[in-house]
Predict the structure.
Amino acid sequence: MQIDAHQHFWQLDRGDYDWLTPELGPIYRDFLPTDLAPHIEAFHIGKTILVQAAATEAETLFMLDLAERTDFIAGVVGWTDFDSTLVEKNIASLASNDHLVGLRPMVQDIADDDWLASESLAPAFQTMIAHGLVFDALVLPRHLPRLFKVLERHPELRVVIDHAAKPTIRDGVEKQWFSNMKTVASFPQVSCKISGLITEAGTDWTTDDLRPVTDHLLETFGPDRLVWGSDWPVLNLAGNFQAWWETTQELLASLSSEERSRILGENARQLYLTR
């Protein structure tokens, strides 16, 4: 079964999407299950993982409610305050809902680059481990050395790097990204999403612009630890669902059908849907 391991829904009048402004024209409107359904039907995607887009537990509850009412949503990656003195209780409460499969602090938007490496986050990570939750790492290239520390301290924490840590494809991928991603891949508990790349490449991207990134991911993580996601509807800033799907097929064309099937579904099932 093919799984889209990274998609979003939002409803603007909920009022907690601080980053979502009118300047982001193509995506500044409501996006709900009826909007995604034609795309997943067209490309035979059976299930999706719905990922948070607001740094509030209210949005997590909103997504969990959508999951209860939408057959194709297999799991939800939500948000909770990792700095709260009640973080263990809050994570346990959210995890009581079987649709919650992971948590994602919005690291890329946190002013302190060293926040991720703080030892004070240990209670949150240990509680996630206890409940079998995945840590979705929404990081930028500069955060990768901080992530190393998390991985060293918590070897039992299952981690997936969102959008390959957003390499600077538009301006040329920095050499440090290649070496840091190789280091991250040396930790066996880490997977990486092939998602969000066209947004990092800009509106005039080509498949060849993305290939150095995906080739490096295939070399370092291998087909057993890569998962595919659309990043819909954010991808509408630089293309559309069909263009990204067809480009994915080109980027993975050298793999066997079994290897492609892992990246396009089986790896996501094992990562998210076995807690």
